[in-house]
Amino acid sequence: MKINKNIKLSKFTSYKIGGPADYLTIVETEAELIDAIKFASKKNIPWVVLGKGSNVLVSDNGFSGLTIINKLCSFKILEDKLTIGSGYSLVAMVNKLARDGFSGFEGLCGIPGTVGAAIVGSAGAWGYEISDNLISIRVYDIKNKKVKNIKKNKIKFEYRKSNLENIIILSANFNLQKNDIEKIQEKIKLFIKKRIEKQPIGFSCGSFFKNPEGYSAGELIDKCGLKGLKIGGAIVSEKHGNFIINSDGAKAKDIIDISKIIKNKVKKEFKIVLEEEIKYIGF
Ligand code: EPU
After folding, report:
1. Residue 160 annotated among the catalytic residues of the structure
2. Which of 65, 126, 128, 245 is the most exposed place for a label (fewest CB within 10 A)?
3. Which residues in the chain come in under a pLDDT of 50?
4. Is the CB of 207 under 6 A from ligand 1?
5. Residue 125 Cβ contacting ligand 1 at under 6 Å
6. How far, CA to CA in Å, does 27 sit from each of 3, 5, 108?
7. Nearest residue to 191 (alpha-carbon basis) of 258, 98, 116
8. Does residue 10 carry a catalytic annotation?
9. What are the E-state strand segments in 9-46?
10. How many CB atoms lie within 10 A of CB 123?
11. pLDDT by residue (tens digit) across 68-115?
């Protein structure tokens, strides 16, 4: 395990924002990940695990502790079951399965981030949920310092959240169904097309806020006339109100400032308090 010091976290986030991590390590095996946590415990410093850094906003001051970059990327198909490392890219997983003729994951194809993060955050799109084909996960239990398996029926999946706390997902098991490769590819193409039509490209963390029950965050922000609002290097996308883009070297502070304006305006206009879908690190 190689521990690096004073590494800029902007290199590891889809926002391309974030100050330095005091310590940073890239782990490729379960043993390395567990060693990294032990290193932090010994030093008595906080630690955080980042996958692809696509659903986080890291402070301009960085993270004073150990940042663990999860590259647990094993991939093994045995008959109709897949065992996959938690650091595997979700997009890469969906595409690889599609090429091998396995269906049931098509709608997840444009969701950024890793498989582990998708499970913890109960990711989904277009009626597909990461939990649909899940059988179980292998995790490191932080409190008891033990590796254990958790079956799907012991996990509570809700809209964009799960009850998975105090654990780090190491790998996941999924059921696979064979289907016609061309049909799968066609579905994926359609979902990608829809995504391109509705969602902007550029440095972002995807949807910034969760959809409040019965509402669309993007629509509420749009109705407040906030699209195109620019603070520093951050802008509310003209294409989709729930995307705050780093368009021009934005600082985390710009994103925070713009998100505060959005929250205040939506609260004032609709009496609805928007809740962040993204996670804050180092604040
Ligand atoms: N809308 C507007 N103005 C906007 C944006 C949206 O009026 O600026 C309207 C749309 O016309 C539509 C409704 O709001 O009637 C919902 O918008 P959309 O279909 O784009 O879906 P969404 O609810 O904003 C959710 C997920 C996305 C996921 C899509 C597709 C959340 C917070 N967002 O978006 O997930 O891709 O559905 O399933 O749950 C993500 O989580 O990062 C993400 C991108």
Report:
1. yes
2. 126
3. none
4. yes
5. yes
6. 10, 15, 25
7. 98
8. no
9. 20-27
10. 22
11. 999 999 999 999 999 999 999 999 999 999 999 999 999 999 899 999
